[in-house]
Structures are given as C-alpha cells and as structure tokens.
Predict the 3D structure of the following.
Amino acid sequence: MASATKQALLAALSAAQGECISGQQLARQLGVSRAAVHKAAAALTAQGYALEAVSRRGYRLLGGDPFCAEAVGPYPAPVQVYDTLESSNRTAKLLALDGAPHGTLVLTAHQSAGRGRLGRVFESPSGKGVYLSVLLRPAASAQTATIGAAVAVCRAVQELCGLELGIKWVNDLYYQGKKVCGILTEAGTDLESGRLEWLVVGIGLNLTATAADWPPELAEKAGSLYPGGPAPVSRAALAGAIARQLLALCPAFDCLDEYRARCFVPGHWVTVCTGTETYAAKALAIDEEGRLVVQRE
C-alpha cells in the first residue's frame, strides 16, 4: 500500500508540472490520509526527487535525480535497481540463468568492475553515469543487438537531451569528439542444442562525469553529455528511455540505415586488429550484416 501511495503521489505531482497541490487535496485525490501523503513525500525525497513542501500551499515536484524503479517510468518487464554492482551485465546474466523474462532491466548507480569489449575496463564513476543491462529473449545475433542498442541510445539522448551522438563502429558513441558511451553484448547458449538462448546488452553512458573522475590515460579520450552537471534528465529516466527504445527495435532490429547514417567511421583510416595481425586500412562502408568493409593500404 505504501508503495502504491508513493507511485500515485509521484504521478499526481508530475501531472501538476511544478505547481503546488495541497496535502488535503492530494489525500482526497489518492484516497489516503494526510499522514500517508507526508510519509510518501518523505520516501520520494529519500530516493532523490527534488520535492518541496511549501507551508499552507502543499507539495510540488521540482525534478532532481531520482534513482529508483518508479523513476524509470512505464516499463513492460521487471526492473532491478542497485546502488552498486560488480557489473550490471554480470547481474543480468545471473538473472537470465534463473529464468528472468525478456526485457528485464538491471540499473546501477556504480560498477566496481565494469567491463568493455576485449576484456577492457569500463570506468563507472559513482552517480555520474547511466549503467544498465537489458536481457533479450528470443535473441538476435550479438552484432545486430549491439547495432540496435547504439541506435536506441542515440534516439533516447536526442529525445530527452536534444543532443546528437555519433557512432564509432561498432559499439562506441561519441559527443563533441569524445567517447561518452560503450556497449557490451554477451550471449548465453543452450549447451545441448548450441542454440542462442538470450543476450544481455550492457550500456554505460557518461552523464555528468568530468576528467577528474577518470584515470589520466582516459581523461583525454572520455567525455560526458553534461560534464560537472547538472543534467536536464535523471539517470533512471534516461535509462528507461534507452531500454524502451531497445525493446521497441526487437526482434527485427530494422535500423541498419539509421546506424549507417549516424556512424562516422566510413571514409576514415582505421587500424584493424584481427588477432593474428594489425594493419592500416580505409573504412569504406557498413555491409548488410553490420560489418565494416575496409580496403588495405
């Protein structure tokens, strides 16, 4: 009941768009006591909402950076929110093995051992980024899901922040010449059939971190959407928008043309590492499978 009151209060204050609503009016509207309204307001404040109680006028919602399941917004699958995790992908994979449904969202404020592709470390400054993983069933290919995730992040950031991101093939997103987002897609297969059972798509987006939050070797390369803050959107709301955009693309992931349009790599020289050799090549295009077509020197 307390959780329902909290959600109803949040909805009522959000609908008021910053205007005050009296405690008596809220109690009547929600069908609870004024004491219950006060308790729910205190709980929302503790979760990070900027909620103001004005004497003789009531309550109003000013925004803030709430970090809770309610702040994610309407979502069609379970939402798990944590203050800190080793990595959101690790937790999402454990949930997948335990039978969690398609779309399950894992969101954390901090990762103590965030990972990128090829075993690289992904730095996750506490409270300054959006760190989430989405479980997909039935699964497409990892490459296709990564392409869809990149497009989903671009769409969500454009919708909520009004910013245009560029994609560096295959899994990095850039803003103003610096990397602001990385994507790591991991798969689970059935040992007997060898069939792909699920994918976990991990996304790390730097929101308000500054150069001081990263090791010196990353400070020149890494960036944020709003260095030092504040951001115009809460981390949970942005995570929810990204996850909803990703799920909307499933299962077809019919977004390759948009991915190509946002990708800035074709036309540039790149260094290709195959595992057996490293060589310079010119990136020509992205083919129908999402692979980068290159021409050697």
